[in-house]
Amino acid sequence: MDRFFHSVMLVKELCVGCTNCIKRCPTQAIRVRDGKARIISERCIDCGECIRVCPHHAKKAEHDSLDMLKNFTYNIALPAPSLYGQFNRLDDIDYVLNGLKALGFDDVFEVSRAAEIISDATRQLIADGKLKKPVISSACPAVVRLIRVRFPDLCDNVLPLVSPMELAAILARKQAAEKGIPDEQIGVFFISPCAAKVTDVRAPLSIEHSHVNGVLAISDIYPKLVSCMNKLKEVEPLANSGIIGVSWSSIGGEAAGLLNENHLAADGIENVIKVLEELEDEKLQELDFIELNACSGGCVGGIFAAENGYVAKARIKRLRKYLPVSCNRLNGSIGLKDICWTEQLEYEPVMTLAENVEEAMRMMDKIDKISAKLPKLDCGSCGAPTCRALAEDIVKGLAQETDCIFLMRREIQYIASQLTKLKGFIPDGNDDSKTGGQE
């Protein structure tokens, strides 16, 4: 398993070095060098923000295809709740679930079912008082990875439970095994709005391995799924989740499922960072729970979604009117121990200057001195997101001071002035002293 696997990738031939991406990356994981963007793998959290802002489509996210179904004899679809918001005038989730079976899946297990179980488990853990407050949701993998690389002091605040996707995969495999199907013949596929989920499956955090075999993009299967739904003649009752589970699709849904008003919900990576910074400063300590989602609007705003996130959110809000409050809770077949992380979330020091403290302090001093020379405009013309980041790159030997166009201009102006002065001491070809003034 690749420790730094990423679903977000750069398409170099489409990149023109416009620097839009470097300014929006929350972990300063992108640089532009020699006219092309470069992603620093260990810093990337797969939030997909660079994909959103790139006007040249030079960033893309990897995902699996329906062809993977051929590798297994029994395939199970795990539709994310946000999938339901992609369809206009949908009033029955069973149409989507039956459409997935018509698309080629043998069974369907709603991720919203697992979400309701996670909500119940979270309520119990908060009530027991064993978690460090405020508890931060672990549902968004991009946020968890952001905390891991930028906010080490908050690692202990993250809810130590598997994601609804992972729990749905565990329960779906269990149901298939009860039918006598060998585990190696079972293919479990998450229908995702989010690129970070691909990374969460290929290189999971805090669990040994994922029970999901592949991640399919909603935008990829949407046209095929609509076609299958339009051809349905009979609709089998398959849905088994309620308002709490389906509401996880948009921001505030998970927090509302705790049935506790002492919570906060924030979406969009910039807003998420602001909240985490306040938490790091020991503010917001009065809250019990904080829900954070890297995508605007929540999961409905993911880069794999086929529909505008706000339109999808409105559709799901209407769809919830026809649902019960909740259909799933912790029970004898699934307990807290079955859904807890197997490993503790640990800080990944990808932004440290050096392993040796003395060396790091020496480098920090150099960075401070170089930063003082820079214009502090954070224009990005140098290929780094900020002047401070450029100073760090210079100290690491990855850039030069003259990469800054303002320092370069000063250097050119200085050289030009020196040449002008020098010209005054060099006789030109028309110097009268050579001929004594005689023609």
Structural description of this entry:
By secondary structure, this protein is an alpha/beta fold. It folds into 3 domains: 8-61, Alpha-Beta Plaits; 66-131 and 159-253 and 295-339, Rossmann fold; 357-423, 3-methyladenine DNA Glycosylase II, Chain A, domain 3 (Orthogonal Bundle), CATH 1.10.15.40. It has helices spanning 20-24, 49-53, 93-103, 111-128, 141-150, 164-178, 196-202, 218-230, 243-246, 253-256, 269-280, 309-319, 336-339, 357-373, 387-395, 405-423; strands at 8-10, 30-33, 36-39, 59-61, 74-79, 107-108, 135-136, 186-192, 214-217, 263-267, 289-293. Strands 6-5-8-9 form a 4-stranded parallel β-sheet, with helices on both faces. It has a 3-stranded parallel β-sheet with strand order 7-11-10. Residues 433-439 have low confidence and may be disordered.
Strand and helix layout:
Layout (H helix, E strand, L loop, with lengths): L7 E3 L9 H5 L5 E4 L2 E4 L9 H5 L5 E3 L12 E6 L13 H11 L3 E2 L2 H18 L6 E2 L4 H10 L13 H15 L7 E7 L3 H7 L11 E4 H13 L12 H4 L6 H4 L6 E5 L1 H12 L8 E5 L15 H11 L16 H4 L17 H17 L13 H9 L9 H19 L16
Task: Considering the chains and any ligands shown, give keywords for the structure.
439 residues, alpha/beta, Alpha-Beta Plaits, Rossmann fold, 4-stranded parallel β-sheet, 3-stranded parallel β-sheet, 37% helix, elongated, disordered C terminus
